[in-house]
Amino acid sequence: MTDLLSEVLEAHGGTERWARLTTVTATIVSDGELFAAKGLPQDLRPRRMTVSLHEEHASVCPFGAPGRRSDFTPGRIAIERADGTVVAERLDPRKAFAGHTLETPWDPLDRAYFNGYALWTYLTTPFLTVMRGMRVAEAEPWDESPTERWRCLRVTFPEDIASHSAVQDFYFGDDGLLRRHDYHVDVAGGFAAAQYVHDIREADGIKFPTRRRAYRRRPDGRPDHDHVMVAIDLSDLRYV
Prior knowledge:
The chain has helices at about 5-10, 15-20, 35, 110-125, and strands at about 25-30, 45-50, 60, 70-75, 75-80, 85-90, 135-145, 150-155, 165-170, 180-185, 190-205, 205-215, 225-240. The protein is of the alpha+beta class. Strands 3-2-1-13-12-11-10-9-8-7 form a 10-stranded antiparallel beta sheet. A 3-stranded antiparallel beta sheet has the order 4-5-6, with helices on one face. The two termini are about 25 Å apart.
């Protein structure tokens, strides 16, 4: 474990506290150009997200219609009724994105898969770095401004963890807290994204950002603030 990773984990609540927890639930409101580009513009109704902390499993409710929810794991995505009856299901869902570009339309299962892996990634950061198979190294820092330099952890994800891309960069301030998250969105043509996080709060001993804004990332690494690809607001987080 790198010195930076140790500092980051401690700043966000510590691995001892994280190990005693199993699940996080959160109210989410999401929006952004990506969903419109996919033909599935997002409404601003609050939804409830549930994420497992030590295995990749997530669900959001309602999804698509009242009384329905998504059920995500890397090998399966489903839309279910409240009693568990399957409305729609896809096994090995990542294969469905082969050949996709940014403009390729998504169906509801595509949207549910993206939502599942993305929110699982966000709600387990930075503690996902210590899961089996993750490779972590300190990379070049990012100069956000002439007076603000953020240190970087480059994380390589194993094949059995679904996420945006195999290699992702996480940037942290002098306090050890997350500031920015860079990746490529492989399920949408691989466009480069820079996600900035804001309004860090604490719940049940864990610190987390409550506002996320993902922008197209320019070749020089700077965000294109004219294009908010995904916006996520989180509230009422509860860890158990």
